[in-house]
Design brief:
Elements (H helix, E strand, L loop, with lengths): L1 H31 L2 E8 L2 E8 L5 H15 L7 H6 L8 H16 L9 H6 L12 H7 L8 E4 L2 E4 L12 H15 L5 E5 L2 E5 L9 E5 L12 E6 L4 E6 L4 E4 L2 E4 L14 E8 L2 H14 L1 H8 L6 E8 L2 E6 L7 E2 L1
């Protein structure tokens, strides 16, 4: 019996040697493969992409982002969403429907705190692509007639509106979806290590060129509308995750001594006045993280905590105001990802 066992071991040794050598060669090849980097402008913001691959994929990556733009950009007059807003006959493509369906799902889950029909109210308050005067109560009430995610649906291969004045605005989810599209393209190429960032929304996989996990900073909220500060509140290890942040500390304006934030509560029609200054969400999909980050800004700290009890898959990092003092609250399961 002992002799037979020894013979089997002898026959297995060459296979084990080949396996070990093959593993070493794969690791060495991966270490020698360079990291590519590209950056530029898209969706009215900037992007930065870093990935380990032996070819420059920027043309393909830009093409993918432009496809998202052609589906969801309100600033592109020929985009699907722009044509829908003009009530033209158009059949939504897969990208548009992916975002529309997710948006409707998050709207229902958050009881309308997230709502892609809020554009008229956003524009009335002077944000978006129009700058206007502070709207009166009468104006807000009139706009409320055609704001509400229940007023739109997908039927018969088209988007149906209850009122032709309903406008869709996917700006609070489109950047995150763009990140997801680029990340999927990289994975389809077999790329194991990458970071995709579009306008502050991020997806990562594997390790950085320093052979370390990807680490992403959360900006400390300050009244910095020009975004020239950039002091970090904390740093998160978000390897193999997506991260999105929504905050009122950059997009705001003052009128009559009052500060008005850019996040509009679809139910009240007015800028939110909750204590949350910044909501960072870590999830498996960047579009999902993007949408919930906006929803939490609308919901406020207490309601957000209640909703999170139903969503253990969502990790959050909230920075909020407590009687003039900046404080933090984060998901217990996020603790091991925080770099002190």
């Amino acid at each position: 019996m002992g002799a037979d066992r020894n013979k089997k071991l002898i026959w297995q040794l060459p296979f084990l040697a080949v396996l070990i050598i093959g593993t070493i060669l794969i690791i060495r090849q991966q270490q020698n493969t360079p990291y590519q980097r590209c950056s530029g402008a898209i969706f009215g913001t900037t992007y930065t992409i870093s990935y380990q691959y032996d070819k420059d994929l920027q043309p393909e990556l830009v093409s993918a982002m432009l496809q998202v733009d052609s589906a969801l950009s309100m600033f592109n007059e020929q985009s699907i969403i722009s044509r829908i807003n003009r009530n033209e006959a158009v059949s939504p493509n897969e990208m548009f429907l992916n975002v529309f369906n997710l948006a409707q799902q998050v709207s229902k889950d958050t009881e309308g705190a997230f709502d892609i029909t809020v554009a008229p109210l956003v524009n009335a308050w002077g944000f978006g692509f129009k700058k206007g005067e502070m709207p009166s109560r009468a104006v807000i009430d009139s706009l409320h007639q055609f704001v509400g995610y229940q007023k739109v649906s997908y039927k018969g291969n088209s988007i149906q509106k209850e009122d032709k004045r309903v406008m869709l605005d996917c700006s609070a989810i489109a950047k995150g979806y763009g990140v997801d599209v680029v990340a999927q393209l990289l994975r389809d190429k077999g790329i194991q290590n990458y970071l995709v960032e579009i306008g502050g929304e991020v997806a990562t996989k594997g390790i950085s060129d320093k052979r370390l996990p990807w680490k992403i900073g959360v900006t400390k909220p300050t009244d910095d509308s020009l975004a020239v500060g950039g002091e970090l509140q904390t740093v998160l290890n978000v390897t193999d995750k997506c991260m999105a942040t929504s905050g009122n500390y950059r997009n705001f304006y003052y009128k009559g001594g009052q500060k008005y934030a850019h996040t509009i509560d679809p139910k009240t029609g007015r800028p939110v006045q909750h204590s949350i200054l910044s909501a960072t969400v870590v999830a498996d999909q960047c579009a999902k993280a993007d949408a919930y980050a906006t929803a939490f800004m609308v919901m406020g700290l207490d309601r957000a905590k209640q909703l999170l009890e139903k969503h253990p898959e969502l990790l959050v990092y909230f920075i909020y105001d407590d009687k003039g003092q900046s404080r933090i609250w984060y998901s217990p399961s996020l603790k091991d990802k925080i770099q002190e």
